[in-house]
Specification:
Blueprint lengths: L2 H9 L13 E13 L6 E6 L9 E4 L3 E8 L7 E4 L25 E7 L4 E7 L10 E7 L11 E10 L4 H9 L14 E4 L26 E4 L4 E8 L6 E5 L5 E5 L2 E2 L8 E4 L4 E7 L7 E8 L20 E8 L19 E2 L18 E12 L8 E6 L14 H6 L10 E4 L4 E9 L5 E5 L4 E9 L25 E2 L1 E4 L13 E9 L4 E7 L2 H6 L2 E6 L2 H4 L10 H5 L10
Parallel strand pairs: 1-4, 3-8, 9-12, 11-19, 16-20, 21-24, 23-31
Antiparallel strand pairs: 1-2, 4-6, 5-7, 7-8, 9-10, 12-17, 13-16, 13-18, 14-15, 14-17, 18-19, 21-22, 24-29, 25-28, 25-30, 26-27, 26-29, 30-31
C-alpha cells in the first residue's frame, strides 16, 4: 500500500457508504465495547460497537422497515440504546431509555431491539443512561424517504456526525460538575474540541501529558468527494452533549430541506446553519467548485452566555472550538495537505428553530379534545441537597428533581404501580387529544428540549414576565400564542430561551417554549433537556399517555417483549 492510498483509507473511513437493505427486515448484530481511540489525536478510552467507532455503523433502512438489532454488552457500565426520532408505536418498550422503558443491559448479557423504522428522515441512536453517549456510543440512523412521498432530489448524500468532544470521561466530569464543593457556581465543563465523523484535531503541545500521555500530531480529517455540477444532500447531526454547532462549507451555500427528519419547505440559500444538541438538519449543496479544488467544512461550537457559564480562563488549555473536515473535487485532490480556502467573512444563517416551515404539517382532528399543561424547569442547589441538580414543576406542583426509578416507569404502569413523584410525571389521560405544553425556563441557559415518541408543533419561542407563568392554561380550550400559526414548523427537539438574569444571577423573566402535539401514542415518554449534563442532573419530566392502556391490560408485563423484560431478572427492577 502506498503512502497516499494508506492516507486515503484512513481519511475516508468515516464516510464509507452503508448499503441500504433490499429487504423489509434489517438484522444487525452489535457488541458494545470499550477500546482506545485517538479521535482528535489524544488517546482515551471510548465506547463503540464491535471494537470500532460508531461512525462506521450508520444504519440505513427503508421507511417502514422492521429493524432487529441484537445487542450484547461487553462493558462494565449499564447500556440502553435510544432510537432518537423513532415513534415506537406499539413497541414502547423499545424506546431504549434506562429506568423508563427498560432495565439497563448488564455486562455479558444480550437483548434484541425490534421495531419499525418510522418516521422517515435523518435520525440517530445513542446511549440513554446518565451521560454515557458522550463517551462515544452514538451513531446515525437514516430512514430513507418513502418513494410515495415528495423525495429530496440529490445526486448523492453524505452523513456528517458532529459532536463536541471531551478528553476526560463523562462520569468523572459529571461528578465534579455537580459537587458544590468542587464547583460552587454550577458551571458545566466545556469540551476540548469538535469532531466530524469522529475526526478532529487538537494542539498536542497544549495537552496535559500527565493525564493524556499519548497524542498523535498527524490527524487526517473527514473527507467527502464532490463532482462539479452535482447536487449533494448532507445529513447533519449534532450528536454532542453540550454545544450548539454552526456548520458551513467555504465558498458553498446551502438550502435546508429537512429538520429532525421532518421535510420542510426549501429555505432561502444560506452559508451556515445552526444545530442545537440532538437536532438533525438536511441541506442541499450545489457543487460549484472545479476539479482538484478542496474546501474546509467547519463545525463551530457556540460558547459563552447563554450557552456556557464557565469563565474563559477555566476552559481546557487545549480548547479548540472548531471542528474541520474537507470537501474535495475528485479523488486526485485528496492529499495530506489541508485546503487553503477561507471562512465566510459574513455569516448568513438560520438562527432559530422557527425559521423553517413544515412541507406537509400534521393535521389534528378538528373535534379532538384540547388539553394544556405547564412545566417549569430550573437548575439549583437546595438545603436538603447542596449539589447542582435540575428541578421540574408539573402544573404548579412543588419543584422536584428527576430520579431514575428502580422499576422502569413503563413496567410500573403495566403492573398497576404508583409512579413516584421523582419521575416528574405529567399524566395525559387520553390518546386522542391535542396537548399543548408551556415550558418555562427559570435558568439563564438555552435548553434544547426533546420529546420522545412524538413530533410537535412549535407555537412560541421567547421570553415572558415571570408573573405570567401559568396564566395561559385556564379552563376550557387553551389559546396558544399565534405568532407561528400560519407557518407551522414541527420537530422533536426545540430550544427554550434562557431567562434574563440580573447582576446576582436571578431571573428577571422566564424563557418560554410552547409545543403542541396529538397524543396518539400511549406510553411513558421523556421530555427533557438534551444537554447531557442537565439531563443527568434531573432536568427531566415523564409524559405518560393513556396509562389505562397498560394498567388495565390483563397481560401485565406480558404486553412487552419477554427478552427485554427478562433483562431485569425475576423482579423487574435494577440499581441505577
Amino acid at each position: 500500500m502506498t503512502k497516499l492510498s494508506k492516507y486515503l483509507s484512513t481519511a475516508l473511513y468515516a464516510i464509507a457508504p452503508n448499503l441500504l437493505s433490499a429487504n423489509d427486515t434489517v438484522q444487525l448484530d452489535w457488541t458494545i465495547t470499550r477500546f482506545l481511540a485517538s479521535y482528535d489525536g489524544v488517546q482515551r478510552s471510548v465506547i463503540g460497537i464491535n471494537g470500532q467507532s460508531t461512525s462506521n455503523f450508520t444504519v440505513r433502512v427503508k421507511c417502514g422497515s422492521r429493524v432487529i438489532i441484537k445487542t450484547t454488552s461487553d462493558v462494565e457500565e449499564g447500556v440502553a440504546i435510544h432510537w432518537h426520532g423513532m415513534f415506537q408505536k406499539t413497541t414502547q418498550e423499545m424506546d431504549g431509555v434506562g429506568g423508563v422503558t427498560q432495565c439497563p443491559l448488564t455486562s455479558k448479557k444480550t437483548i434484541v431491539y425490534d421495531f419499525l423504522a418510522i418516521p422517515c428522515g435523518t435520525h440517530w441512536f445513542h446511549a440513554h443512561l446518565k451521560t454515557e453517549y458522550m463517551d462515544g456510543l452514538r451513531g446515525a440512523f437514516i430512514v430513507e424517504d418513502s418513494p410515495h412521498e415528495n423525495k429530496v432530489v440529490a445526486d448523492e448524500d453524505y452523513v456528517l456526525q458532529m459532536a463536541d468532544y471531551y478528553h476526560e470521561e463523562s462520569a468523572s466530569l459529571f461528578q465534579k460538575a455537580t459537587d458544590i464543593s468542587l464547583n460552587p457556581t454550577g458551571a458545566k465543563p466545556v469540551w476540548n474540541t469538535v469532531l466530524i465523523n469522529d475526526r478532529g484535531r487538537i494542539d498536542c503541545t497544549k495537552v496535559d501529558k500527565t493525564l493524556f500521555p499519548v497524542c498523535n500530531k498527524q490527524q487526517p480529517l473527514t473527507t467527502i468527494i464532490f463532482e462539479t455540477g452535482k447536487t449533494y444532500r448532507l445529513r447533519l447531526i449534532n450528536m454532542g452533549g453540550f454545544a450548539p454547532l454552526n456548520f458551513s462549507v467555504d465558498n458553498h451555500e446551502m438550502t435546508v430541506v429537512a429538520a429532525d427528519g421532518v421535510r420542510v419547505k426549501p429555505s432561502r440559500k444560506v452559508n451556515s446553519v445552526r444545530l442545537f444538541v440532538a437536532q438533525t438538519m438536511d441541506v442541499l449543496i450545489e457543487a460549484v467548485g472545479e476539479a482538484n479544488q478542496q474546501y474546509f467544512m467547519r463545525s463551530k461550537s457556540n460558547f459563552g452566555p447563554p450557552y456556557t457559564s464557565l469563565p474563559r480562563e477555566k476552559f481546557p488549555a487545549d480548547f479548540n472550538p472548531v471542528g474541520l473536515g474537507r470537501v474535495v473535487y475528485g479523488e486526485k485532490a485528496v492529499t495530506p495537505c489541508d485546503p487553503k480556502s477561507k471562512d465566510w467573512k459574513t455569516i448568513d444563517t438560520l438562527e432559530n428553530d422557527v425559521d423553517l416551515v413544515s412541507l406537509i404539517p400534521v393535521i389534528f382532528p378538528k373535534d379532538a379534545q384540547q388539553n394544556c399543561s405547564i412545566l417549569q424547569f430550573t437548575i439549583k442547589t437546595t438545603p436538603s441537597d447542596p449539589n447542582w441538580l435540575g428541578y421540574v414543576s408539573v402544573d404548579q406542583s412543588p419543584f422536584t428533581t428527576f430520579v431514575l426509578p428502580t422499576l422502569p416507569t413503563l413496567y410500573a404502569l403495566a403492573l398497576g404501580r404508583e409512579i413516584p413523584v421523582s419521575s416528574n410525571p405529567l399524566f395525559l389521560a387520553s390518546a386522542e387529544m391535542v396537548q399543548t405544553i408551556f415550558i418555562y425556563n427559570l435558568n439563564p441557559a438555552v435548553h434544547p428540549m426533546h420529546l420522545h415518541g412524538f413530533i410537535f408543533r412549535i407555537l412560541f419561542v421567547g421570553n415572558v414576565p415571570i408573573d405570567k407563568i401559568g396564566s395561559s392554561c385556564g379552563k376550557g380550550t387553551p389559546v396558544p400564542p399565534s405568532r407561528y400559526k400560519e407557518s407551522i414548523i414541527e420537530r422533536d427537539v426545540a430550544s427554550v430561551t434562557g431567562c434574563t438574569p440580573d447582576n446576582l444571577g436571578n431571573c428577571q423573566d422566564a424563557g418560554l417554549l410552547v409545543i403542541q402535539f396529538y397524543t396518539d401514542n400511549p406510553g411513558a415518554w421523556l421530555l427533557h433537556c438534551h444537554i447531557e449534563w442537565h439531563f443527568a442532573t434531573g432536568f427531566t419530566s415523564t409524559v405518560i399517555v393513556d396509562e389505562k392502556q397498560f394498567s388495565q391490560n390483563p397481560k401485565g408485563l406480558g404486553v412487552f417483549d419477554e427478552g427485554l423484560v427478562g433483562t431485569c431478572g425475576e423482579e423487574p427492577t435494577y440499581r441505577p
